[in-house]
């Protein structure tokens, strides 16, 4: 099977890996958080790479840009839910900071991707399939 187009995106690779780590973390949260914090955190973490996939498969850089923006919002939610987990004593501050550092690095990749897409939109949509992220 040929590689999926989004699999070449560094932002997707790293956000997918982060999502897997978040899922493992959610399994450690108390059972009473399964339908609240764990669910919200897992859904937000999965939304990041999922929106990159959806945007990469979209027609035109404008739609792709919108999905990157949604992914950025989901990444901000992940950061907030991790703070909640830390402040409620479910994870240690060091672990929260490790996740936050990875999140900020992924955010930087996505901001650069968004800037390239914005430029493609301004140029009339030419060349968006060549944009890396």
What's the topology here?
Blueprint: H1 10-28, H2 37-56, H3 61-87, H4 93-122
Helix pairs in contact: 1-2, 1-4, 2-3, 3-4
Structure commentary:
- The protein has 133 residues and is an all-alpha fold.
- Helix content is 72%, strand content 0%.
- The protein has 4 helices and no strands.
- The longest helix is centred in the C-terminal third of the chain and has 30 residues.
Structural class by sheet pairing and helices: mainly alpha
Tertiary shape: elongated
Q: What string, H for helix and E for strand, traces the elements in order?
A: HHHH
Low-pLDDT runs of 5+ residues are none
Note the beta-strand portion: under 5%
Count of individual helical segments: 4
Number of strands: 0
Oligomer: single chain
Query: What is the rounded distance between the termini?
Result: 22 Å
Provide mean pLDDT, rounded.
93
Radius of gyration, rounded? Answer: 16 Å
Percent helix range: over 70%
Task: Report the major sheet.
Answer: none
Quick summary of this structure?
With 133 residues, the protein is mostly helical.
Q: What labels describe this entry?
A:
single chain; mainly alpha; 72% helix; 0% strand
């Amino acid at each position: 099977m040929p590689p999926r187009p989004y699999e070449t995106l560094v932002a997707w690779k790293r956000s997918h890996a982060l999502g897997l780590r978040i899922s493992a973390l959610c399994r450690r949260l108390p059972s009473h958080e399964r339908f609240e914090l764990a669910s919200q955190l897992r859904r937000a973490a999965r939304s990041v790479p999922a929106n990159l996939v959806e945007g990469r498969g979209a027609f035109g850089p404008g739609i792709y840009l919108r999905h990157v923006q949604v992914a950025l919002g989901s990444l901000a939610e992940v950061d907030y839910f991790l703070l909640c987990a830390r402040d409620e004593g479910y994870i240690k501050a060091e672990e929260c900071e490790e996740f936050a550092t990875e999140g900020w690095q992924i955010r930087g990749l996505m901001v650069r991707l968004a800037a390239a897409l914005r430029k493609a939109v301004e140029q009339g949509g030419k060349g968006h399939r060549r944009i890396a992220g």
